[in-house]
Write a structure and sequence with these properties.
alpha/beta, about 220 residues, 5 helices, single chain, about 30% helix, 9-stranded mixed β-sheet, globular
Length: about 220
Amino acid sequence: MKRITIIAIVTVILCTFITGCSHTPEAVKEYEEWYEALQINEHKEIEYMGFSHNDNTLSLSIDCNYENLSLFNDVIKRHNEFVKKNPDYFPENSKINILSGYGTPQVFIDCYNKPGDYFGEISGEGIEEDNEIKYMSGDVMEFKYAYDQCKNEFSIPVLILSAHYTGTINHDDFRFLEQFKNVEQVIIYFSELDYNMEVVTGAVYDYCPDAEVYELVKGRKLKKW
């Protein structure tokens, strides 16, 4: 009888362990292999917040704060590595969005492979479209604050900088661009900020000398500087 009881207990423990090892939320089950490759649940500092997909559009939200932005950056890198190894995994013409939009304090950074219907309306010039993350978009001051908390090395072709506050900006505010050594295009979209584009351009070129600088102007067109 004791032996049967012990076997039953061990069986329950094993079943619980096996079930507990399934880290994929129900909403992402269709893309489980991809989600597991991102290793989001391997770190308690970041957290899955939601996933939605409609036709060929996929959007993943992650809870992350400034101090742990490097972990979010790792997720982006793992996504790109997964795409390279599995080029046919996602549906044709997929629009993939990975968003850090929560956290305390909140850090809102939007990453995507190509412009979408409800995210990433700005597209770069001559950027090859595939399923790798090619765009990173965020507020210039959020990047600045994140840089003060945690240093990263981003490998993103297109960086889109917005500014959703009133005030002025100076050369030193762009010091965070040291993290974007391989960026090819920096797109400026300061809708509310009082700024001098020559100062902005000079700062971008100082930190990213090989990048092209564009400004989003009236009519949502890109002006090259």
